[in-house]
């Protein structure tokens, strides 16, 4: 269990068991990977398809492509731990950085920044994107690494608190 993560309550465990039983259509103690998505959505979680594949791969101990109750409970315990850890500011910044770093190379490029800003409803000119990169880019490589991103976000937070 991650440091600082709260153990899963018996109420949560019962909720997980009920969800599993509901989606175990054949009553054979297994749910398919496809059904897992529906289960997780019904519990208020919204994983991406990649996250879903990773979840199944991580807990499908016997590699049969289905999840037995024990595997499902292990998955949901990890998910609950991850959600508890999400209150960690550094982890929140890492998640935000991953949203911007589309190709997962450890840097945010001008194209990646522009794409995310458009998806957030902010249509910026190339010059505005360039300016944002230059403000954050301390080492002058034309990219924003995680440390530069953290510094930029911290400055942004302190600017907002002063206004």
From TrEMBL:
One of its GO terms (cellular component) is myosin II complex. Gene3D superfamilies: EF-hand (1.10.238.10). Keywords: Calcium, Metal-binding, Repeat. PROSITE patterns: EF_HAND_1 (PS00018), EF_HAND_2 (PS50222). SMART domains: EFh. InterPro entries: CALM/Myosin/TropC-like (IPR050230), EF-hand-dom_pair (IPR011992), EF_Hand_1_Ca_BS (IPR018247), EF_hand_dom (IPR002048). It comes from the Eukaryota. Residues 11-46, 47-82, 88-123, 124-159 form the EF-hand domain. One of its GO terms (molecular function) is calcium ion binding. Potential calcium sensor. Belongs to the calmodulin family. This is Calmodulin-like protein 5.
């Amino acid at each position: 269990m991650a440091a600082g993560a709260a153990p899963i309550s018996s109420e949560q465990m019962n909720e997980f068991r009920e969800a599993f039983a509901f989606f175990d259509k054949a009553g054979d103690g297994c749910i398919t990977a496809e059904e897992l998505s529906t289960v997780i959505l019904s519990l208020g979680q919204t994983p991406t398809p990649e996250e879903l594949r990773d979840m199944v791969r991580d807990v499908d101990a016997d590699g049969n492509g289905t999840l037995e109750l024990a595997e499902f409970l292990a998955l949901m315990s990890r998910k609950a731990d991850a959600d508890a850890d999400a209150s960690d500011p550094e982890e929140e910044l890492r998640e935000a950085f991953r949203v911007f770093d589309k190709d997962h190379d450890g840097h945010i490029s001008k194209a990646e920044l522009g794409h995310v800003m458009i998806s957030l409803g902010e249509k910026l000119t190339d010059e505005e994107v360039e300016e944002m990169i230059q403000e954050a880019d301390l080492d002058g490589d034309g990219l924003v690494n995680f440390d530069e991103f953290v510094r930029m976000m911290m400055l942004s937070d302190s600017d907002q608190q002063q206004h």
